[in-house]
């Protein structure tokens, strides 16, 4: 997926032709894949916390003319031309608002048996929107969504000022779509049935805001897909590689003499925690080589085996780690072989 992505979709709130456009910064976007229990790829997702969003109102849908009219001499909207001012009317004026916000771009891999792709995508869109709002306790106006790219993508963004940061939480939790799918199944009456709801109702997928999509919405066509998502895992990518590939690369970079480093890395991987960016990377400013590094967070990890019990080694460790803290500005975390280090891994959840 390109780093600089911009795609429009025409929506019709209140009878206006409104298009949505966005752009990711190449170096900031994070990529991930959602994989089913049987290895099937269900979703590709891209996240950025400072993506640019543009919403452009191109005028009423009920008229043939594009945009709005404004008299540049008076500032009055509408057709206000007079005989003595024939050239002051500006036509095809488009209204635009822009924002910087948290954005999650989702590409579902629509099942072959879903014969009506538009209906599937629209139904999945609103099921996920409702589920995100329910799981993360959001008000309806705090999250917005659009279908983009001729029915290939779903765009979710945090519409309230500042944002609640829930979209980043989805990416950080390997089981996030399990929880969201379970909630969506409940919302769509598959957990607690509702006989009076044939395809969709105002308790599941319908709302005033999506009334133009009502003919498309059908909760039944997304049921199997949601059930697959309940056993899915988010596989985050780093610099274009998968989590599995990143894990194998890090394992190869560890100190060959340190079994503890590999045990530590294995536990991170199995718990679904964020993997470090590198292993055994020298920080030239202080000539120190931590066992693992999280670059953006500036966190250095040390896995101390039994060799670090010797007093001389402990003194070297103290000097090196103080240099990291006070000269290079790193936050240092130490995990020892003779402690219950697995329970301490939760401190890395916020990275």
Secondary-structure class: alpha+beta
Strand content: 25-35%
Tally of DSSP β-strands: 14
Instruction: Give the terminus-to-terminus CA distance.
Output: 25 Å
General form: globular
**Helical segment count:** 7
Which H/E pattern describes the elements?
A: EEEEEEEHEEHHHEHHEEEHE
CA radius of gyration is 26 Å
The residue fraction in helices comes out at 10-25%
How many domain units? 2
Largest sheet: 8 strands, antiparallel
Regions with little confidence, pLDDT below 50 for 5+ residues:
1-13
For the residues shown, what is the average pLDDT?
Answer: 86
Written overview of the protein:
With 351 residues, this protein is α+β, with helices and mostly antiparallel strands. The protein has 2 domains: 10-59 and 97-235; 241-348, Endonuclease, Chain A, CATH 3.40.960. The chain is built from 7 helices and 14 strands. Strands 1, 2, 3, 4, 7, 8, 9 and 10 form an 8-stranded antiparallel sheet that branches. A 4-stranded mixed sheet has the order 11-12-13-14. The protein has a two-stranded antiparallel ribbon with strand order 5-6. Strand 8 and strand 9 form a beta hairpin. Helix 1 (117-135) crosses helix 3. The longest helix has 19 residues, at 117-135. 28% of the residues are buried. Residues 1-13 have low confidence and may be disordered.
């Amino acid at each position: 997926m390109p780093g600089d992505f911009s795609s429009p979709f025409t929506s019709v709130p209140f009878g206006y032709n409104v298009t949505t456009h966005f752009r990711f910064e190449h170096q900031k976007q994070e990529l991930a894949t959602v994989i089913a229990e049987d290895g099937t790829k269900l979703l590709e997702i891209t996240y950025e916390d400072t993506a640019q969003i543009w919403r452009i109102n191109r005028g009423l849908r009920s008229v043939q003319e594009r945009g709005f009219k404004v008299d540049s001499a008076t500032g009055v909207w509408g057709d206000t031309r007079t005989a003595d001012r024939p050239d002051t009317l500006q036509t095809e004026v488009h209204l635009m608002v822009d924002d910087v916000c948290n954005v999650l771009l989702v590409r579902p891999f629509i099942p072959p048996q879903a014969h009506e792709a538009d209906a599937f995508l629209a139904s999945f869109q609103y099921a996920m929107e409702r589920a995100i709002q329910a799981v993360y306790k959001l008000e309806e106006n705090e999250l917005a969504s659009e279908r983009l790219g001729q029915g290939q993508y779903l765009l979710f963004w945090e519409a309230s000022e500042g944002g609640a940061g829930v979209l980043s939480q989805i990416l950080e939790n390997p089981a996030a779509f399990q929880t969201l799918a379970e909630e969506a199944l409940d919302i769509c009456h598959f957990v607690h049935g509702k006989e009076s709801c044939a395809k969709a109702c105002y308790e599941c997928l319908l709302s005033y805001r999506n009334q133009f999509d009502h003919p498309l919405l059908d909760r039944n066509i997304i049921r199997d897909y949601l059930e697959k998502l309940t056993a899915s895992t988010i596989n985050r990518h780093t610099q274009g590689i998968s989590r599995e590939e990143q894990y194998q690369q890090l394992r190869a970079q560890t100190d060959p003499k340190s079994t503890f480093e590999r045990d530590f890395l294995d536990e991170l991987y199995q718990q679904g925690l964020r993997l470090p960016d590198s292993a055994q990377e020298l920080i030239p400013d202080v000539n120190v080589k931590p066992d693992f590094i999280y670059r953006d967070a500036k966190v250095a990890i040390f896995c101390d085996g039994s060799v670090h019990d010797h007093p001389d080694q402990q003194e070297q460790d103290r000097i090196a780690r103080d240099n990291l803290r006070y000269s290079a500005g790193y936050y240092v975390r130490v995990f020892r072989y003779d402690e219950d280090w697995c329970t301490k891994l939760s401190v890395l959840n916020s990275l």
